[in-house]
User: Fold this.
Amino acid sequence: MRFETLTIHAGQEPDPNNGAVMTPIYQTSTFAQDGVGKARQGYEYVRTKNPTRLALENCVAELEGGGYGLAFASGLAATDTVLRLLNSGAHVLAGNDVYGGTFRLFDKVLRRFGLDFDFVDTTDPESVAEALKPTTGMVWLETPTNPLLSITDIQAVTEVVHAHSNHPLLVVDNTFATPYNQRPLELGADIVVHSMTKYLGGHSDVVGGIAIVKDKLLYEGLAFLQNAVGAVPGPMDCFLVLRGLKTLHVRMDRHAENALALADYLSKHPKVAKVMYPFHASHPQVHVAKRQMRSGSGMVSIIMKDGREVAVRFAEATKIFTLAESLGGVESLIEVPAAMTHLSTAGSQMAVDPGLVRLSVGIEHKDDLLEDVEEALKKA
Ligand SMILES: Cc1ncc(COP(=O)(O)O)c(C=O)c1O
Assistant:
C-alpha cells in the first residue's frame, strides 16, 4: 500500500467483535483473563498494552517504514524513555538547535542522572565526527529544527555515527517533517521520535509522543522501558491521533503550499531581516532539504529587522494566526520563541534571537493568511 492508503488503513481493521470500522476507544485499565496466566490476545494490564494504542503504534510504525512503534503520553515522555536506553556515564551528542524542551530535559534533568551531553552543529557532519567520544552512546538530531528550521543531512551523519567504534544509536526527531515528508529510518537512523501533539494529531486537541524502530532487540528494550517507566497515553488520546493521521498527507500538502507562499512574501518584506524555510531558495541547506524531504512542511520562522518590540507587536496583531504555543494543527499559530516556547533556553548556548517570530502555517485559504500577515506587519 502507498503512503496515502497506509495513513487510513495501517494497523487498523474492523473490530473482530462487532465490525466497528473505526478503532474503538478501549477505555479500560485491565482485561479479563481466561485462567491464571491466560490473557486473551496478550492483553492484561493497560500500561503494558491496549488495543487502541497498539493500532496507533502499528500505524505510525508503517508510515515511518519501521517495524515497531511505542506510544507515549507526550513527545518529551517519548524522548525521556528513549534516553533511558543508556547507562549512567554515557555521552550523548545532540544538535545545538534542538527544541527548547528537549534541551531542558537533557541539560537540567538527565545530566543529574549521570548522562554527559554535548551540543554541536549537526548541519555539519564533520562537527559531529569531531565531537564523538569513546563513550558516545547516542546522537540526537532534529531536522528541521524548532524554531530555526536548520536541516541536517541524515544520511551523511548516519555514516559518521555508524562508523564509530562504540556503535552509538542515531535518533531523529521527525516532528517537523512528519513521515509524509521524510523517513529517517530509510536514511539509516536507528530510532525516530515524534511529538504527536503536532502534525500527526494535526488538530491541536491532544498531547502525545511516539518512538519508532526497525530492530526487534531495540524494540524489546524500549517496550520494557515503556512498561517499566509507564509514561503511556490514554486510549482516547490514541484514538484522536489515529483520526488525525487519516488526513496527514492531504494536510501536509496544503501546509507546505501555504508556508512556501508565506515564506516568499516575507522574504521580500522591508520589516523582515531573514526568512527561514527549508524549501526557500535562501535557506543554506535547501539542497539537502530537497534531497531528503518531499516538501518544506508548514513551519516558517523570521527575524524582524527591528528586534523584539516589533516581533511582539506583529505576533499580537494577527487575527487569523492565533498567538499561541505549539504547532502543526490545521489552524495557523504565531509566537515569539524567546519569550514563549524557548524561554527555557535564555542565557544558554541555545538562546534564540529576541526578534524571532515562528509561524505554524495552517491549511486555511492562502490569501486570507497572506492578507492577515500583511495587515499585522503594517501595525507592527
Ligand atoms: C520538535 C519537537 N520535539 C519534541 C517536542 C515535545 O513534544 P510534547 O510537547 O508533545 O512533549 C516538541 C514540542 O514542541 C517539538 O517541537
